[in-house]
Amino acid sequence: VQLVESGGGLVQPGGSLRLSCAASGFTFSSNNINWYRQTSGKERELLGVITSAGASTIYADSVKGRFTIARDNAKNSAYLQMSSLKPEDTAVYYCKTKIPARAPDGSISLRDYWGQGTQVTVSS
Length: 124
Hints:
Elements: E1 2-6, E2 9-11, E3 17-24, E4 33-38, E5 45-50, E6 57-59, E7 67-72, E8 77-82, E9 91-102, E10 108-114, E11 118-122
Parallel strand pairs: 2-11
Antiparallel strand pairs: 1-3, 3-8, 4-5, 4-9, 5-6, 7-8, 9-10, 9-11
């Protein structure tokens, strides 16, 4: 299982950026995709979720109306379109999915898989 984010970089306040999350090693179309971000010294913040077929999304209040999550199951990819960026959006951005796994005792749990993250810096 692999998730690889890309598309980060330096952008001016008010600008836009689109992040990508390329997936491999699992049935992408069967899994929800979450987007998170993290700044130094803080816990990762859940920004939003897109369901497996892309029919539904939900966003954190901090990004609602500015960020949009989409996916292309034919390309095994998810996207985070960010607009009206602010300096406080500066962070490392991650995508994540959960995949069922069977433990040695036979129980089933959902295991988190994360990408390596991509840095977004909003600054003039």
